[in-house]
Specification:
Blueprint (H helix, E strand, L loop, with lengths): L1 H19 L6 E6 L5 E6 L2 H4 L6 H13 L8 E7 L3 H10 L3 E6 L24 E4 L3 H16 L1
Parallel strand pairs: 3-4, 4-5
Antiparallel strand pairs: 1-2, 1-3
Helix pairs in contact: 1-5, 3-4
């Protein structure tokens, strides 16, 4: 479990980059689970980029696809993300053929992995990754709670 904690901490660092520019603090990294090499990083940027699809996961997936020069990513890749992916991101993760998703905080409202539509349980899902939730959940949740508390002031 230590490797998951280490990589989630890096995803949290990405989330903090989003927060610095006024975006919802969600971060992601994609790691080769065999070598431990970080393939790509991403953080939320829909406001800055004027792009509703610019979620942390999508940014990381796009970057990984460019780095690997393939829209279907290597089968040993693991996506670490600070918040349970939404339906859009779950779909992109499935099409990219990510092996494992490790997420921090649960998203009861917008999540689509363990909550909501439970995308990967759908018979229409093309690829079902291994899912590990709750890694550094308190830290990931607190980052979001703190961000929204400041917004409400």
């Amino acid at each position: 479990m230590d490797k998951h904690v280490e990589f989630m901490r890096l995803a949290i660092e990405e989330a903090k980059k989003a927060e610095e520019i006024g975006e919802v603090p969600i971060g992601a990294i994609i790691v080769d689970s065999q070598s431990g090499e970080i393939i790509s990083r991403g953080y939320n940027q829909p406001i800055k980029s004027h792009d509703p699809t610019a979620h942390a996961e999508v940014i990381a997936l796009r970057s990984a696809a460019q780095a690997l020069e393939n829209y279907r990513l290597k089968p040993e890749l693991c996506l670490y993300v600070t918040l349970e992916p939404c339906t859009m991101c779950a779909g992109a993760i499935s099409f990219a053929r990510i092996k494992t998703i490790v997420f921090g905080a649960v998203d009861k409202k917008g999540g689509a992995v363990e909550n909501g539509v439970k995308f990967f349980s759908s018979p229409q899902c093309h690829h079902r990754p291994e899912i590990i939730g709750g890694i550094l959940e308190n830290e990931c949740s607190e980052l979001l709670k703190s961000f929204f508390a400041k917004k409400r002031k």
